[in-house]
Design goal:
With 238 residues, the chain is α/β, with parallel strands linked by helices. It has 7 helices and 7 strands. It has one domain: Spore Coat Polysaccharide Biosynthesis Protein SpsA, Chain A, CATH 3.90.550.10. 37% of the residues lie in helices and 17% in strands. It has a 7-stranded mixed beta sheet with strand order 3-2-1-4-6-5-7, sandwiched between helices. Strand 1, helix 1 and strand 2 form a beta-alpha-beta unit. The longest helix is centred in the middle third of the chain and has 18 residues. It starts with 12 loop residues before the first strand and ends with a helix.
Length: 238
Amino acid sequence: MVNYRNHILLPTEISFFCPAYNDEANLPKLISAVYEFLSRVSKKFEIIIVEDGSPDRTGEVAEQLAKQFPNIKVIHHSKNLGYGAALRDGFREARYAYVMYTDGDNQYDVREFEPYLHLLGQADILSGYVEKKALTLRRKIQSRIFNVLIKLLFFVNIRDINCAMKIYSRKVLDAIDIKSTSAFIDAEMLIRAQRSGFRVAQFPVTHFSRVGGLASGSRFSVIADTVKDMLKFRFGLL
């Protein structure tokens, strides 16, 4: 096994965050894995949980984790503001040179970043892609259509726009102005970054079945807001 600590290009300061909604059963496993991982691969790190007004005990569980582990900060939304708003708050609060995120539903394993961290020496963004998604047929179709539309409308060559396994360097976040608050935010960030000349490295990741909580990505309101922001961005209104 390669000792990635010996790579001089390995990021030494990492901010990790996750949006969390209906994830009371998922957060303990996720945060435990993230803490162990970051303790191994970085010299300094922080973990931010953005609790997006969950109706379950996600907020309470997040606070318990902040007491259990050092370097954890919890941001609470008084009401559900949506995925895009949760991501924006995570990026806004992150302090370190590299910002890593995944979702609070524990459907990704952050340890799958490890073999590819050295690519940050050549790229400004590390973006995962999933070959086989653990989704319902409806969600798979939605994801496929969305990726095709983004490629056709914006001419970006990203295999899996909405894969929630990404790392951004601070210089990218400082250079781009993110405006969407819907699930279009992933696409907007990558489009703006590529248009600004930043480099993206892509790597394969595994998508696991959701064990606890309820997914909200297929709700009509979520889809409608995403399409609205996509069209506004396409015609220069965002």
